[in-house]
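Researcher: Quick test of sequence recovery. Tokens follow.
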């Protein structure tokens, strides 16, 4: 194995000493590894639709990261939350009532899957108050 010059990851003005880009441009993060060579979602595009419906979280393994990615049963395979507010809060078995933009995965190991992207949880997760109340109790 040969040495690779590190290219540090900088997000929100902070350098992450335990995350870097390889010389091939791949993100290296010792906090997680993927079962498949490709990450679950590499890129996605808007399909111009809004997803409105109920999903149940079937896997929350990526729910503790800065931007939670939840695997769900329902009309979309994934719910991606662009909010650190929900990090670690939305757990397996919880139902989410969504009204948010829908996207399609264009590359990665789940190419073709549907993703609901939540940018404002207080507007787009219509049962957020109940979920927060339950989390606090």
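Model:
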């Amino acid at each position: 194995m040969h040495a690779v010059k590190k290219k540090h990851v900088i997000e929100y003005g902070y350098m992450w000493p335990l995350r870097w880009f390889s010389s091939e441009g791949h993100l290296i993060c010792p906090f997680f590894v993927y079962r498949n060579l490709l990450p679950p979602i590499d890129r996605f595009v808007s399909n111009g639709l809004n997803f409105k419906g109920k999903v149940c979280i079937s896997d929350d393994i990526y729910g503790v990261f800065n931007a939670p990615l939840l695997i769900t049963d329902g009309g979309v395979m994934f719910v991606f939350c662009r909010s650190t507010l929900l990090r670690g809060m939305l757990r397996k078995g919880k139902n989410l009532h969504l009204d948010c933009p829908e996207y399609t995965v264009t590359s990665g190991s789940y190419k073709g899957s549907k993703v609901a992207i939540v940018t404002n949880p207080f507007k787009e997760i219509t049962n957020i108050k109940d979920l927060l109340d339950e989390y606090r109790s």
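The chain has two domains: 1-31, 43-136.
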